[in-house]
């Protein structure tokens, strides 16, 4: 039995790192290289570009912050009344209707005007304003009143 050489006796384990190694040297793996190991033509232009972008974003944020003003309730009410009066005058609608229009268009006079002149009936339907119809009660005379448009000062076609 002494002549039988056991294979387990002759196996030598050199080290645990070599035992589990796949034979690949990790120091040459590009995933393990540091920035200093790379050779390129980058002269810092990318960093300068990033700094410019960050400065532009900061300037934009500062500009947005400067455009904001906190209004007290009196100032807010004044501005709202001015907007209602302007929309009422330009669109020839009541102040009540103007306030409904402004509420539906986030108090933007220009958005109300643009939408109104693009398609008045669609805007009226969207905000829930009925189209005005003239109902006459009583005696109807043969005399016709000339109605002039409050916006363009023309006589509408009949």
List the SSEs and their pairings.
Blueprint: H1 7-10, H2 16-19, H3 45-66, H4 73-91, H5 95-104, H6 109-118, H7 120-127
Subunit arrangement of the protein: single chain
N-to-C terminal Cα separation, in Å?
Answer: 126 Å
- Give the C-alpha Rg: 40 Å
Quickly give the structural class. mainly alpha
Number of helices, where a helix is a run of at least 4 consecutive DSSP H or I residues: 7
Helix content: 40-55%
Q: How many beta strands in the DSSP annotation?
A: 0
Provide the residue-averaged pLDDT. 74
**SSE order, one letter for each helix or strand:** HHHHHHH
* Low-confidence segments: 136-140
In percent, how much strand structure appears in the residues?
under 5%
Largest sheet: none
Overall 3D form? elongated
Domain E3 ubiquitin-protein ligase ARIH1-like UBA-like: 78-117
Region (Disordered): 1-28
Protein name: RBR-TYPE E3 UBIQUITIN TRANSFERASE
Biased composition (Basic and acidic residues): 1-12
Please, could you describe this protein's structure?
This is RBR-TYPE E3 UBIQUITIN TRANSFERASE. It comes from Salix viminalis (Common osier). Residues 78-117 form the E3 ubiquitin-protein ligase ARIH1-like UBA-like domain. Keywords: Transferase. Residues 1-28 are annotated as: Disordered. The protein is mainly α and 158 residues long. It has a domain at 49-134. 49% of the residues lie in helices and 0% in strands. The chain is built from seven helices and no strands. Helix 4 crosses helix 5 (95-104) and helix 6 packs across helix 7. The longest helix is centred in the middle third of the chain and has 22 residues, at 45-66. The radius of gyration is 40 Å and the shape is elongated. The model is unreliable at 136-140 (pLDDT under 50).
């Amino acid at each position: 039995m002494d002549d039988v050489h056991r294979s387990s006796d002759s196996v030598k384990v050199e080290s645990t790192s070599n035992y589990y190694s796949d034979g690949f040297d990790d120091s040459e793996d590009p995933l393990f290289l540091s920035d200093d190991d790379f050779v390129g033509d980058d002269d810092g232009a990318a960093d300068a570009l990033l700094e410019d972008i960050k400065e532009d974003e900061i300037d934009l944020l500062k500009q947005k912050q400067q455009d904001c003003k906190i209004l007290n309730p009196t100032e807010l009410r004044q501005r709202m009344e001015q907007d209602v009066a302007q929309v009422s005058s330009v669109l020839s609608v009541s102040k009540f209707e103007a306030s409904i229009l402004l509420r539906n268009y986030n108090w933007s006079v220009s958005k109300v005007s643009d939408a109104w002149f693009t398609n008045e009936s669609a805007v009226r339907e969207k905000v829930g304003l009925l189209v005005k119809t003239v109902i006459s009660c009583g005696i109807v005379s043969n005399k016709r009143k000339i109605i002039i448009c409050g916006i363009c000062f023309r006589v509408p076609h009949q």
